[in-house]
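The methods section describes the discrete structure representation at length, but only in general terms. What matters is that the chain and its backbone geometry are given together, residue for residue. Nothing conveys this as quickly as seeing an actual entry. For illustration, here is how one protein appears when written out as sequence plus structure tokens:
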Amino acid sequence: MFERGELVSIRELEGGVAHDRFLKNAVQLRVKALKDLTLEEVKVVAMAIGGRLVDFKIDDATVWTVAVTPLPGFNIVFCMQKYSPEFEDTMEVLFSRKAVELGIPAEDASEWAILYLNAMIYAVRRVLKKDVERISHYL
């Protein structure tokens, strides 16, 4: 569905260097609620937030990838990376190169990404009815 060259990191968007650490920290907080989902569960959660499970891998550690499209031509791609037990599991968030062309600043792109991750966690709790670890009063 996506080619690696079509996707960029937050660092390539306007103001991206400043928002890189912010996004990584926010994503890492949310990984613990999403990392143990099965592919079938991820598919249900993706559909619940208006996204889709896609066939895209960064490397052999990618266990699933969900894409959402907040604006026509602008995709946010979430890649769950399982590195345990050697390293901490993580999630890579990539954006369609079109975001650069559209002039979407990193601040907005990172906020959208976090909001979609929050929506995924809400779907895990409310659609899948799974009790996952809380990361805040609301999440």
Notes: The chain has a mean pLDDT of 94. The beta strands are 7-8, 52-53, 62-71, 74-81, 90-96. The chain is about 40% helix and 20% strand. Residues 4-126 form a domain with the Alpha-D-Glucose-1,6-Bisphosphate; Chain A, domain 4 fold (CATH 3.30.530).
